[in-house]
Amino acid sequence: MHQRKIHNTSVSLTELGFGASVIGNLYRVTPAADASAAVDAAWDAGIRYFDTAPHYGLGLSEHRLGAALRDRPRDEYVISSKVGRLLVPNERPRGVDSEGFVVRDDLRRQWDFSRDGVLRSIEDTLERTGLDHLDIVYLHDPDNHWRQAADEAMPTLADLRDQGVIGAIGAGMNQSAMLARFLRETAADVVMLAGRYTLLDQSALDDVLPAARELGKSVVAVGVFNSGLLSRDRPTEGMKYDYRDAPPALVARARAIADVCEAHGTTLPAAAIAFPHTHPSIINVTLGMRTPEQVVRNVELHGQRIPDGLWADLRAQGLIRSDVPAELGRGRGSRCL
C-alpha cells in the first residue's frame, strides 16, 4: 500500500489507516477476538498506520491495539495516540461509561492539557499499549482549552519531538477553524480532521486546508462517512450524520451524489474514501474498523479506481463545492492501489 510522509518529519503513513475507536467498544461490545482479528486483517492488507486514544473505551482501545501489535516489528508500523483526557479513578461509577463506549466506568476522563498532564498521559498510554514509544501524538479535542493547549501542551510535545521521543505532533478535532490555528500558530506538524472534508462537507477549504498547503504541513482525514450517511451505496432515512439522525435534505443530497457515482461505475462509499485524497495536503484517510470483514471491505473500497470525471460532474451539478481542487491532488483517478 502506498505511503506518504508527514511533511518535514521522518514519519510516513499508509494512505489508508486503521481507526481503533470501535475496538474500544464504541456503541456496542466488540469481542476481543474480533478486535485482534481486525488488526491482523489490516496488517495482512498492508495497513501500517494505527490510531487510538485513552478516550476510546477508557483505555480499552489502547490495551487491545497494543496487544495486537506487540509481536509485529516495531519499525514497520506507525501508531498515534492522543493527550488531553487523563483517565483517573471514578469516585461515582454508575456501571457503564456515559460517553458512548460499552465499558465499565471505574475510570473517568479528566481534561488536562498541562505539561504534567501531557507527560502523564503519554506515560499511561505506553503502559496500556506495552509499547516503548509513540510515533504521533495529537491533542484530543482541545476546543474549549485553546490557551492551555497552545501554550503548554503543544510546546511539551514539541520538546519531545525535538528530542526524538515522538516523530510528529499535532491536534485532532471535529472542527477545522482551530486546527488551522494550530498549524499557523504552534509547532504542529499534522492535524487529524474529522468530518470536515467529505462529500457532504467541504468547510475545511475555508481554513485548515489552505493553511496546510501554504505552510507545507499535513492533514489526516477521519470521519469521511460523516457518521454513516456515506457508508452505503444507497443512503436511507434514519442513517446518522455527525452522530445524529441525518436531516432529509442531506439524505436527498447523499442520494444524488450516489446517483452520480453509479453513473461513473463506482459507489458512494468508495468515492467517500477517495475524495479527501483529492486534496494535496491530505496524506491519509483513517477508518474505524471493528472486524476483519470491515477491514476487507474498506481496503477493497480504497483500492477501487475512481474516474476523474466523477469529481468534475459533482462540481458541475453543485453537489460539491466549485473550489474543490481541480488538479485532484493525490486522488486515485489515474491508478489503482
What does this structure look like?
This protein is of the alpha/beta class and 337 residues long. The chain is 34% helix and 18% strand. It has ten helices and 14 strands. It has an eight-stranded parallel β-barrel with strand order 3-4-5-8-9-10-11-14, surrounded by five helices. Helix 1 runs parallel beside helix 9 (292-303). It starts with a strand and ends in a 21-residue tail after the last helix.
Give a nutshell description of this structure.
The chain has 337 residues and is α/β, with parallel strands linked by helices. It has helices spanning 32-44, 60-69, 115-129, 146-162, 177-185, 208-215, 248-263, 268-274, 292-303, 308-316; strands spanning 3-5, 12-14, 16-19, 49-51, 78-83, 85-89, 107-111, 136-140, 168-173, 190-194, 218-222, 240-241, 244-245, 282-288.
Label this structure with key terms.
eight-stranded parallel β-barrel; alpha/beta; disordered C terminus; 337 residues; single chain; two-stranded antiparallel ribbon
Question: What is this structure's SSE topology?
Answer:
Layout: E1 3-5, E2 12-14, E3 16-19, H1 32-44, E4 49-51, H2 60-69, E5 78-83, E6 85-89, E7 107-111, H3 115-129, E8 136-140, H4 146-162, E9 168-173, H5 177-185, E10 190-194, H6 208-215, E11 218-222, E12 240-241, E13 244-245, H7 248-263, H8 268-274, E14 282-288, H9 292-303, H10 308-316
Parallel strand pairs: 3-4, 3-14, 4-5, 5-8, 8-9, 9-10, 10-11, 11-14
Antiparallel strand pairs: 1-2, 6-7, 12-13
Helix pairs in contact: 1-2, 1-9, 3-4, 5-6, 8-9
